[in-house]
Amino acid sequence: MEAGGAGNGSNGAAQTKGSGGDGSAKPLPPCCVKARAAAPESEAKCHATVVSGWFTEPRSHCGKAIKVQYYNNPMWPGEAHSLKVEKILYQGKSPYQEVLVFESSTYGKVLVLDGIVQLTDKDECAYQEMITHLPLCSIPSPKKGTTLQVLVIGGGDGGVLREISRHNSVESIDICEIDQLVIDICKDFFPHLSVGFEDPRVQLHVGDAVEFLRNAPEGTYDAIIVDSSDPIGPAQELVEKPFFETIARALRPGGVLCNQAESMWLHTHLIQDMLSICRETFKGSVRYAWTSVPTYPSGVIGFLLCAKEGPPVNFLTPINPIEEVEGATKAGRRSDFIIQSPFNCNLYVKIVSIKIRLPWLIFIVEQMHRAAFVLPTFAKRELEAYCASTETMSSHGTVRPPWELGSMHLQRRQIY
Asked: What family is this protein classified in (predicted)?
């Protein structure tokens, strides 16, 4: 989700709703009921991304001519991805981005931000479970009398919160999401994700994540999970050295970061730069992992896992496999949360068990955790070779933007 910028996304949002999350019917323009194959021009006029019953990313329309044009998104040049649309459920705009929700024929409901698919009912589990449990299952259980503090950057859909809720060892969960509209829409249309907001340990902060981190006391968090959008425009700041340095400052010794880190098939240059920056910033362990998400470009997405200097962290072998985390694999479970008393830092009280409507785990198992760090030969060769020699990095630790791809695609293809 979008994590850059500043301000509250709930102001000034233009909204056009379909059926709400409670099943109540709400009026829609005729062209919104279903994309009409007979009149694609009128459909494009209303929804630039839905034509003839299909959603396609990336696509735009051209002014008065209503001429649909395909263009190269710098994150995945030369590609366009499509899903068949059964019904448009919502279209609106916040101060930060355009928001679209539709029912697809094969992947259930789909959330789209600025024309880019963020998640679907069918495959969201792979992303949410991996980005959360890879870091949390890699850090030791807290010692008696201590608990874990976790921060989520972005993640306004609530999916990462849902997965963190499976861990009773976590005392508090802060989330900083810039766009209130994303939170509200996901509560309406994706309740199986937004259930994470029901956890009483969650503290929501709507605003600029960079500013939030700057104001966080040093050494506050045991784990930080960055569920950000692609590094284009303002989000470019979230993959550069100053941002990672701010994260490292907010982590305790031995604390861990898990950062969304794009696709090894398309963004090797970007991953190389991020790895180099993080190995300068985090003196513990730095690893790259990946998983399969069919509706993301190339069908895979990566994660950058970093540990701050301190107690050693071995990401490759989960010290607390998800199957051994008490109650984590159960659906609709009751959980006991350990809360520190605000009046006496040495006193800990256990509050009454609280029912959380968690769905079953769908994707991750211990073997999947271990396998996530096994890279294909081409990716291992390129990433290791680059990290051994960082001559192409600037002295300011900046990341090359996606459009500076050059001939790297051709160089990679020559491996085969």
From this structure: Belongs to the spermidine/spermine synthase family.
